[in-house]
Amino acid sequence: MSADKPGEQQPLDAEIVETPGPPPAALPEPDYSDNGAPSFDFVRDRIEKRYTTSVGAQEIAGIGGPEDLQSLDKKIADRKEAAKDKLAEIRRAMGKE
Q1: What backbone torsions phi and psi does residue 38 show, to the nearest 5 degrees?
Q2: pLDDT value at position 66?
Q3: Residue-level pLDDT at 81
Q4: Are 42 and 36 in contact (CB under 8 A)?
Q5: Beta strands of the chain (E only): which ranges?
Q6: DSSP β-bridge partners for residue 38
Q7: Of 6, 15, 65, 89, which is most buried by a Cβ count within 10 Å?
């Protein structure tokens, strides 16, 4: 095996130069301490998340004030009355009344 043959490539002697990468990212503080107690930030974030979720659910449901609650109570009472009337109608149709 001679390296003098035409068309045969010679291996290159190269030096590997390592480039420094980006500095390591700072790790966030853990949510719990070594003894298992949650951090203040963790607890605050959980409370804020629950609060905003409940506010959003109220907005979606349309429950914003006492007027809305009264109208919902009326709708529930009307639905119960309609169900009672329907049950009485079914019983009459079956001849049980």
Answers
A1: -70, 150
A2: 59
A3: 96
A4: no
A5: none
A6: 32
A7: 89
Rounded Cα distance between 83 and 95, Å, is 18
Residues 6+ apart with CB under 8 A from 93: none
Both tokens of residue 57?
A: 């659910």
Can you tell me which residue has the tokens 């009472």? 77
CB 48 within 8 A of CB 40: no
- Which of 18-23's residues contact partners 24+ apart within 8 Å by CB, and which partners? none
d(CA 4, CA 71): 97
Q: Please, which residues bridge with residue 32 across strands?
A: 38
Instruction: Say which residues have a Cβ less than 8 Å from residue 42's Cβ, sequence separation at least 6.
Output: 31, 32
CA dist., res. 64 & res. 43, Å (int):
27
CB-based contact 91:97 (threshold 8 Å): yes
Percent of the chain exceeding pLDDT 70 equals 79
The conformation of residue 15, written as its DSSP 8-state character, comes to -
Work out whether the CA dihedral 40, 44, 47, 50 comes out positive or negative: negative
